[in-house]
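Case study: Putative efflux protein, MATE family.
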Amino acid sequence: MLLEAPIAPTLLRLAAPNVLVMLAQAGVGLIETYFVGQLGTDALAGMALVFPVVMLMQMTSAGAMGGGIASAIARALGARRRDDADALVLHALAIAAVFSLVFTVGVVGGGRWLYTRMGGTGGALDAALVYSSWVFAGAFLVWLFNTLSAVIRGTGNMAVPAYVTVLGAFVLVPLSPLFIFGWGPMPGLGIAGGAIALMAYYLVGSVVLAVYLWSPRSLLRPSLAHIRFRWVLFKDILRVGLVGMVSTVATNLAIGVTTALVGGFGTVAIAGYGTASRLEYLLVPLVFGLGAPLVAMVGTCIGAGQRERALRATWIGAAMAFVMAEAIGLWAATFPNAWLSLFNNEPAMLEAGALYLRTVGPVYGFFGLGLVLYFASQGAGRLLWPVIGNIVRLAVAVTGGWLALHWGGGLAAVFAAQAAALVLYGAVNAWAIAGGAWFGPVGWPRIQTGTV
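Here is what the predicted structure looks like once written out:
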């Protein structure tokens, strides 16, 4: 199917369960945000401080390193290297263990320093530290869940991760308020309860994914009895994953620095911006839903030597992602309070969030374009230009935001810099691939005309 079926219908068919899984996973975060928002503005602002760091871990494990894992397995299967594909599973789990430990030690140990510099003070800082400590103490569960999902997606199976995530979201809906507010003899745990419920979700989901992967129904046959690590297989994952991490860090650093700039306008402004920018983060899993099958298709086609088909699939996926993200952005810019009021009704918070959505929402299509081309580049194993695009985005967002404040431009100017950064991010990625950044100019098949 990846090598021969019509591209657009195949991408949509594979993306449908994947978009569902990403919607469910994003819904998990939104559900938690909704209930935490009932605890007050300080709790919402505290969550906004932690959110860029949580998303850094999510995007690193599911997008960057997860894309490297899925790409390596897809290319191995496309080249009919079945033994290597099986062995890549244990290599992926070893990588997950190491990186999860880095996140746990780094964030639990340095959380106060980090969130203070992002503008956290008083009750918002206290809430951020409590939530962050619980989430990052369980970082391995997040990495395990996303790694197992990436392994299964690398085989072209998008349905199993979708089912597991959706069913897990249904479990989390009652679990989150139970832990946050309590019920009957069970005391409420406040913002810590939201984090504990989230970790329970990842634990159960990881167990289910592992049971499937080691079952007869799985395409892969990983064996714990013959563990023999090979650097060449680590390299196959890391050469895509590590470069992708640079891109992911740049994305989340742009959000984190903007949060710090917005912090100069007070806790309520942080809450407004943090709540509004969650919609941008919602685009990440939505585009990822389309990008994950694109990684598998591009990787498999390149592994089989079908370069023209890989490029054609890339541009079809890019058009789909642009239209989807732009439609969401225009809706948010037109009706910002429809999104913001789901979480809090503080007038100043709504004002700050609405300003962000009206400024940045209309260019969300470029964000979707750049992001889906990043995923396609993972499949191709060519990530230089996506990294450059993200660095350009970071430079424009940070420098432009700082200059806006320095020159007295206020929040509107800070957000305008973010909008310009997203446009450049999408444009740089599209220009590079169109110019032959993957493997030079490739001739497109010509339609023959004339008398047969």
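For the exam, be able to explain this: Residues 442-452 have pLDDT under 50 and may be disordered.
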